[in-house]
Write a structure and sequence with these properties.
The model has no long low-confidence stretch (mean pLDDT 96). The radius of gyration is 24 Å and the shape is elongated. It starts with 8 loop residues before the first helix and ends with a helix. An eight-stranded parallel barrel has the order 1-2-3-4-5-6-7-8, surrounded by six helices. α2 crosses α4 and α5 crosses α6. 40% of the residues are buried. It is of the alpha/beta class. The longest helix has 17 residues. β4, α6 and β5 form a beta-alpha-beta unit. The structure holds 3-methyl-2-oxobutanoic acid. The site of 3-methyl-2-oxobutanoic acid has 13 residues, from β6.
């Protein structure tokens, strides 16, 4: 996968047309981006979830545009070919269309993203339209939208009741009409995701905990690889428990240093005997 071609929007829509699921993960740093590039992940989201997964905050709200630009830049270096989406953090697009365009532009120009993502439905359609009209591909995000976690009453399933489900469907149409190339549905019932996916005409749908019927799947990298110590959400599967491997390795490191079994000669460098003897002479001269 090392020399695959750069993923583009036509490539992604072609996958949708061929009914091939799109793969997507979050990513926040250079080494992980390198691994994801080599695994052939189609789309990478530098999510503002980095506030929780990387910075240890309780929510995504304190994340700034500077945080997003710094992490997106590092990810871009590790993955030259994935379709890279920069997440727009809290209050980087809500205040006005102009502010939304300016900040979306920073993710493109300063970090090298291919697209941006913003949360919200019909009420954010003018921000979506403004960003798209500026030539920046944009993804919508509906269902559980973490920046509104307080208004939503916590990290919980959205669209379970008919009225709320209809509102999410209307929001999806509004975002599609505003020009979103894709919409992420987070934590909504699988049947609702299926209905929205079937009705999508000019955009494709990505599921995060919304079932199998979408055009593609997203997982939070830290959830999928056992790297988030606080909890493991039901929507995630641990594909490899890297967290446990790292923890075991750390215990071993502490033990081996304590017992002086690390380092060993292969881990250090010697000095030629004649240089060492010369050094002793120099030290003796200095002492005189
Ligand atoms: O920030 C993020 O990673 C996200 C996901 C929860 C979709 O927006």
């Amino acid at each position: 996968m090392a020399d695959r071609k750069k993923v583009s929007l036509p490539y992604l829509f072609n996958k949708v047309a061929k009914d091939e699921p799109i793969t997507m993960l979050t990513c926040y740093d250079y080494p992980t981006a390198h691994f994801q590039e080599h695994a052939g992940v189609d789309m990478i989201l530098v999510g503002d979830s980095l506030g929780m997964t990387m910075l240890g905050y309780e929510s995504t709200l304190p994340v700034t545009m500077d945080d997003m630009v710094r992490h997106s830049k590092a990810v871009r270096i590790g993955t030259p070919n994935a379709w890279l989406i920069g997440d727009m953090p809290y209050m980087s697009y809500q205040p006005s269309v102009e502010i939304a365009i300016k900040n979306a532009g920073r993710l493109m120009a300063e970090a090298g993203c291919d697209a941006v993502k913003l949360e919200g439905g019909a009420e954010m359609a003018d921000r979506m339209a403004g960003i798209v009209a500026s030539g920046i591909p944009a993804m919508g995000h509906l269902g559980l939208t973490p920046q509104s976690v307080s208004a939503l009453g916590g990290f919980r399933l959205q669209g379970k009741g008919a009225l709320q489900a209809k509102k999410i469907m209307d929001d999806a149409k509004a975002l599609e009409e505003a020009g979103a190339f894709s919409i992420l549905l987070e934590l909504v019932p699988d049947r609702l995701c299926k209905l929205i996916t079937e009705r999508a005409e000019d955009c494709f749908i990505i599921s995060l905990g919304a079932g199998l019927h979408a055009h593609g799947q997203l997982l939070i990298y830290h959830d999928a690889f056992g790297l988030y110590p606080r909890f493991k959400p039901r929507m995630a599967r641990v594909f490899a428990d890297a967290g446990k491997m790292i923890q075991d390795g750390l215990h071993q490191y502490v033990q081996e240093v304590t017992e002086r079994t690390f380092p060993q000669p292969e881990n250090w460098f010697g000095m030629p005997q004649d240089e060492y003897e010369d050094l002793m002479v120099l030290l003796d001269e200095k002492d005189e």
